[in-house]
Each structure stands twice: as structure tokens, then as C-alpha cells.
Structure to design on (540 residues):
């Protein structure tokens, strides 16, 4: 059976940038575009040229891509010809092969927002699309508020989108701009549009996630016959976000009936890089990846309950709907006070530690884990700290270095501008190969701002670790979480530190103490020890 082609249109660089707190630099946009192209999407919407300096600069030096680079703009303004509309001219001047224009298809918005008649709006759409095609560009029309408009006035909504199609739009994209339409209505209305004369091979879908249905709504449109899918990496987008391509792509490739019925530009091989690309985007945005994200989240294939882990050891399909490796992710058997020996042996095996079933050492490790979790530790998320604890219990943990003492001071003082500032300083003394090393560091960043006592400790500890210095030079802290595990004057602080290295490995460590600095230092020490252990093991 010949499979139908579905076209993937990514709007991370434009609609994704509407996310609160997100602003890409030109170089970041280039890096994301190159990653999207390598993944295999068909269109990359680079932004709105002329709307802001970053987007304009991106199109001036956009990377050469196999994917069709697309500029975004709006239909011509009322009272101005398409040839003389400077906003439309800026979009054309971006020089992209394709141009996507947004226009009104809801009669309420035509009257209230534009203040013009429905007929004039329809003419603006038609003339704008005709102008693009006359200039040799592939034209796409984003039918803004289409589903709300169709519910209010189906005759006019269809008139507007047919005007775009009949004047040469390659794709007419139905937009659920407010994100409130549910999947059944998306499917019904998309079917109506096709029946009205716009073939599904020229029809796209653009949904928002305001009811947590963006992916489901997109699939409903595909089921109805739409053959272009618009979305963003990690579901970025205004308000609650857009349809999430990191969920849609693996569904289309791995789930029936889509896998057998459709073909997309992303190959099964390229799909194995999906988790890496998802996390690369979070790294660019300086955001912590969402652990529970479908397919690419660090908890997407985590099995905490002992019953689940026992079954997973026998056959992973008992509790996994796909092989995590298919999307570049990995299985995790977290350790917690709910753990049984099946969890423990699986997690030890993942760490390269072999312990036979029934070995008394398993009971010792479990007892130690449960005792420490009663003190406030959490090995559910801190997998690296769990491995170090297990190796220590088994007598397999080398002592790379010993911290003899450390001191941290925080000073508040006025600078030369008579402004109060804080300054943190740390002193760390370590013993390595029989000799002591003293390191001192402040916590000032390149802008002269204080980054706090934990940062000062991290910099001091990583300043001189002798034979291990080369190993830790490429590691860095990417997240720092603090939790108070009990209140009152006897409060216990738990700190989780996420670290990353140049190989793209990410690991988590935990520290617990009534003193937040001490808890942080414990987690920091575990992070460094795990990195040294893993690198030395890999080299040997």
C-alpha cells in the first residue's frame, strides 16, 4: 500500500518565540534551524522580517537548509495595494522560497479588529496571495481564528479560505488560534472544508494547547484529511503553547494507523535524535526540561514501583509503549523507599554493577537507601548519588580525593557607586595523593554580579583537582533545586543538583543537611565524584 505524504511545518522560531520569557538571539535561531533541518521537517518558519531586528538579521544570514525556509507576515492592509504595502514588501524582501501570510477568517474579527467589511477583507486575502505567487513565491495562508469563525459564520469563513486557495495558495492552514476547539469539532469542520472544495493535500492544521488537546486536535484534522501539520518543538507557543512536534513526530512514525498510512520527512534514524534536540532547545532557553514530557522527558520511561520493574526485566513491553531508544531516550529504574530487589538489580546493571539475585549485598543497599530517605534524601531523581552509595556499600568506590575542610563567607558592602552588593568567597582544602591543595574563589560572574556561596564553592573545588582536573573541566551545573523536608527550627534542607558535561551526559545528585550550604556541597561533591568515576571507567 502506498503511503500518503504528511508535511511537517515548524514554527518554533516564530510562534514559539511568543512564549512568555522566550527570546531567541539570531545565532540561537540559526542553531535551532539547523537542528530542525537535520531532523527532517519540511518547512521552517524563521520569523516575521521587519517585525523586530532579530528576525530581520536571521533572514539576512539564514542557514542553507533542505527544508523550505519560510517568512511570516500578514495580508495587505486595507486601502493600500499589495504592491505598495511596506509590511508585505519586508516579508518578500527576506528572499525565502515560501511566504506564509496570516489573515482574518472570523467575521467578528474582521469588523471589530480591522474595522472593514467582509468583502474588503476577502479581497485583501486574494490580492495578497496573488501578489506572492506573481513574484514566484510559494504562498501559504494562515486562516486566523478559523474554527471559531466557522462556528459563528461558516459561509464567510469558507469564503475567506477559498479566496486564498483559488488565487494560488499552496497551503491553506486552518488555525485554532484561541485553542478552545475540541478534537471532534476539529475533525468535523476540517471535513466540511474539504467537502467545500479545498483538497486535503492543500490543507494544513495549526492548533494551540489551551485545553491540553493540541496534539489530539492535530491528529483529528489529519484523520479528516489535512496533510500539513504545524507545530513547535517542546510545544512552545503563546499562552499554553502550540501542538508539540516532539510528541506528534514519534506518534506519526511509531503509532498505528499513522505509521502504516503516512510518510513524513523524519526517518526512523533521525528520530533517535529527537530527545537530544528537545533538550538542546531547553538548554538554549536555560530551562529545565519537563521530566514528564511524552517520549522525550527524563521520566517518560521511568519505572518506580517494584512490581513494574520486575516485569520490565522480563519484558519491557509490559510497561512501555515503545522502545525508549527509538526516540533517543533511555529507561530509568529510580531508587526510592518503594524499591524492591528487581528495581535495585536493574539500576545496578545500568550502572555497570553486577550483583547476583539473592546476594545479601542487595539487602544492605536497600536498607541503607531506606534509612537515608528517612533522613530526607531522595534517590528517586538523584540517580548518580544512588550509584555512588551502592558502590560505597559494595566496597567498589575509589577515594579520588578527600575534602579536609571548607569555608564560605558572604559579605554585604557598598561599592564605588554607593550601591549595596553581596560578595561570596569560598576556601576549599582537599587531599589528593597524600598532598593538600588549597583553593580560593569568589562568585562573581563576567558581569560583576554575585552568583552566591554555592557557586563560589563549586568554582573553588573545581579550581585544582590535580590528576582529575582535565576530567571535570567540561562539566557544569545546569540546575539547582532546594526543598525543605520538615519545618520549624529543626528544618532539614534537601538540595538536588543537575550537572552536564561536554558529551551531553546529564546526571543528578542529592545532599541533605540542616545547613543549605552544606547540603549543596554534598550534592556538588557527588556530582564531581560521579563524573570522575564514569570517565575513568570509560577510558579503562
Amino acid at each position: 500500500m502506498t503511503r500518503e505524504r504528511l508535511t511537517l511545518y515548524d514554527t518554533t522560531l516564530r510562534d514559539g518565540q511568543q512564549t512568555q520569557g522566550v527570546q531567541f538571539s539570531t545565532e540561537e535561531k540559526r542553531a535551532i534551524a539547523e537542528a530542525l533541518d537535520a531532523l527532517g521537517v519540511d518547512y521552517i518558519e524563521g520569523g516575521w522580517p521587519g517585525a523586530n531586528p532579530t528576525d530581520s538579521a536571521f533572514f539576512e544570514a539564514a542557514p542553507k537548509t533542505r527544508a523550505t525556509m519560510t517568512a511570516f507576515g500578514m495580508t495587505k492592509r486595507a486601502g493600500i495595494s499589495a504592491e505598495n504595502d511596506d509590511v508585505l514588501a519586508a516579508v518578500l524582501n527576506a528572499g525565502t522560497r515560501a511566504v506564509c501570510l496570516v489573515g482574518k477568517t472570523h467575521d467578528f474579527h474582521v469588523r471589530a479588529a480591522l474595522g472593514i467589511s467582509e468583502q474588503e477583507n476577502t479581497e485583501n486575502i486574494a490580492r495578497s496571495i496573488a501578489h506572492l505567487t506573481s513574484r514566484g513565491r510559494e504562498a501559504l495562508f494562515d486562516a486566523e481564528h478559523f474554527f471559531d469563525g466557522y462556528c459563528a459564520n461558516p459561509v464567510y469563513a469558507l469564503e475567506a479560505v477559498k479566496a486564498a486557495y483559488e488565487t494560488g495558495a499552496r497551503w491553506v492552514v486552518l488555525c485554532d488560534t484561541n485553542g478552545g476547539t475540541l478534537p471532534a469539532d476539529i475533525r468535523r469542520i476540517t471535513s466540511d472544508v474539504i467537502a467545500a472544495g479545498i483538497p486535503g493535500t492543500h490543507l494544513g492544521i495549526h492548533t494551540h494547547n489551551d485545553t491540553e488537546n493540541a496534539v489530539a486536535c492535530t491528529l483529528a484534522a489529519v484523520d479528516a484529511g489535512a496533510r500539513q501539520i504545524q507545530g513547535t518543538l517542546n510545544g512552545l507557543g503563546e499562552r499554553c503553547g502550540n501542538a508539540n512536534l516532539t510528541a506528534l513526530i514519534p506518534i506519526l512514525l511509531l503509532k498505528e494507523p499513522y505509521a502504516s498510512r503516512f510518510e513524513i520527512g523524519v526517518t526512523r534514524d533521525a528520530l533517535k535524535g529527537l530527545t537530544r534536540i528537545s533538550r538542546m532547545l531547553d538548554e538554549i532557553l536555560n530551562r529545565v526540561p519537563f521530566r514528564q514530557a511524552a517520549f522525550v522527558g527524563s521520566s517518560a520511561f521511568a519505572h518506580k514501583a517494584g512490581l513494574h520493574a520486575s516485569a520490565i526485566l522480563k519484558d519491557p513491553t509490559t510497561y512501555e509503549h515503545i522502545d525508549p531508544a527509538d526516540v533517543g531516550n533511555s529507561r530509568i529504574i529510580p531508587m526510592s523507599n518503594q524499591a524492591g530487589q528487581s528495581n535495585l538489580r536493574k539500576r545496578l546493571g545500568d550502572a555497570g554493577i553486577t550483583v547476583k539475585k539473592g546476594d545479601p549485598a542487595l539487602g544492605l543497599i536497600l536498607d541503607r537507601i531506606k534509612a537515608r530517605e528517612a533522613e530526607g534524601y531522595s534517590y528517586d531523581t538523584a540517580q548518580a548519588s544512588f550509584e555512588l552509595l551502592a558502590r560505597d556499600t559494595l566496597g567498589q568506590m575509589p577515594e579520588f580525593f578527600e575534602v579536609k575542610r571548607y569555608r564560605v563567607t558572604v559579605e554585604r558592602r557598598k561599592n564605588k557607586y554607593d550601591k549595596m552588593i553581596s560578595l561570596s568567597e569560598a576556601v576549599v582544602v582537599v587531599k589528593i595523593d597524600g598532598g593538600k591543595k588549597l583553593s580560593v574563589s569568589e562568585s562573581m560572574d563576567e558581569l560583576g554580579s554575585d552568583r552566591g556561596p554555592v557557586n563560589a564553592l563549586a568554582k573553588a573545588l573545581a579550581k585544582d583537582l590535580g590528576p582529575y582536573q582535565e576530567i571535570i573541566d567540561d562539566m557544569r551545573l545546569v540546575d539547582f533545586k532546594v526543598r525543605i523536608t520538615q519545618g520549624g527550627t529543626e528544618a532539614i534542607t534537601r538540595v538536588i543538583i543537575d550537572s552536564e558535561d561536554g558529551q551531553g551526559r546529564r546526571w543528578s545528585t542529592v545532599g541533605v543537611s540542616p545547613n543549605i550550604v552544606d547540603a549543596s556541597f554534598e550534592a556538588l561533591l557527588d556530582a564531581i565524584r560521579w563524573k570522575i568515576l564514569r570517565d575513568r571507567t570509560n577510558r579503562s
Remarks:
- The chain has a mean pLDDT of 91.
